[in-house]
Design goal:
heterodimer, A: alpha+beta, Cytochrome-c3 Hydrogenase, chain B, 17 helices, B: alpha/beta, Beta Polymerase, domain 2, 3 helices, 19% helix
Chain lengths: 390, 171
Amino acid sequence: MTETRTVTLNMGPQHPSTHGVLRLVLELDGERVVSARPVVGYLHTGIEKTMESKLYYKALPCTDRMDYLAPMSNNLGYCLAVEKLMDIEVPEKVKWARVCLAELTRIKSHLVWLGTHSIDLGAMSMLLYTFRERESIIDVYEACGGQRMMTSYIRIGGLAHELPPDFESKVRRAVTEVSEHLGDYEALLTKNQIFINRTKGVAVISAEDAIAWSLSGPMLRGSGVKHDLRKSNPYSGYENFDFDIALGRNGDAYDRYLLRLEEIRQSIRIIKQTLDGMPEGPYRARVPGVVLPPKEDILYKMESMIFHFKIITEGFKAPVGSVYQAIEAPKGELGFYITGDGTNKPRRVRVRPPSFVNLAALPCLVEGSLFADVVCAIGTIDIVLGEVDR
Amino acid sequence: MEENIRGFLKERFDDAVIGEDNFRGEQAFRIKPESLIDVCQALLEDVELDVRYLSDITAVDWLGHERARDGRFEVVYNLYSLSSWHRFFLSVRLESEGPTLRSLTDLWPSANWLEREVYDLFGIEFTGHPDLTKILTPDDLEGHPLRKDFPLTWEQPTFGWNKDAPPEVIR
């Protein structure tokens, strides 16, 4: 008589396939996963607490550092929430520029996901190709805000600076490069038998479970739930643009791969529309005392200089009340719940992190599957630990 | 949809709903803490309203603010309907001493981690939670960092400069 026992295996926190510092405690019965328990918090830096101790303006750079693969989306979510709290309407041009940048960010985030996910599954060359295209998007960031990763370009009430003169040509170059090479990615992966074997029918979640686990973004749409905040609760003028919601059918890793590629295509479609119809106008709203005046005015107008000084030193006072603004970030529903308390600092800044909520469903994805598929499941959720732990 | 939710709550839970707030168009209902789980269950089971998506759970510490008179902690449940695309909030107020609520993990599995986060950062207990442990902060950290009386620059492991006493609360 032989006795069978399950084995408890610790995976991470330092493990290349966990995309950061995620730790998993796995209980294995041979090659099968009996139970999985994600342990997070290794990257907890207290970003929410930090933001609550700063003026509304000065809390902005904290947002870049959460989902560092999609800084512009985080900036956008925070700024929209503060604008809602302060009841600010931004100029049309700002809305269009923001949409363009947010969609570039989606492409960039999905490209990194594609590269790292393929590496997890053994397709080593993908990362080199996706990072090549990502570079051209980062060039756009650099031209706009001067920074390549932590942009902080989208500011409360508008943008940090005027769009650069070569903005359009740079963006067009970036989207042309991406759309030219999308076919190469597909040629490498979509019909690749190894890739299909590793992803088809792996990490499956049904539509009911996806809703019960509050999944969002590609994780939710991959299971066939047609929900996209850009369509359902449009923000920043998304109602002006034509695009389709990509949907999966089987809720497995392969469907989510196809879906994310399709999202890149739809993003390119939106970006082209924003470039074609970009309205003229100021790059910042004019709300004295709340939104920083344009740089040119600070140099020549006394009032503007005083407002600039006051906003930077003591900020603006927000009304007492809570607002919530959710955006469709590359990873799902990114929400900012901001509570003002009548002072110049927020009482509460809550970030509804899509990766954190999606990661909570990991046990549901891997239990009963093979141990080797755990790596695929982590990859397909598309987590960024900077956002999970904040 | 706003009307439907309001009507539903008024009809079924008239005595549980304390008030409604519509700041900047965000529909938020204040609920008595003891009836929270019944309200959520009824909302979840109602097919017409189709409120099946628990978007978020969070809390606000009103320490030192005039709003603290109704209870220091405000726990906010962010609910969303995937068919009518309507978002609304249920909030409950809890007192400073031993804040406790019923867990919603039986209704939504996603409440598990969200409640653990609120427990970890605010020290609000959820009874009936299967695994109410710290999630983000280190196991040996004492206190709940997002409470307003937790000092901003205090770190638990003693690093030279904070060996002695915690500095004053920095807000």
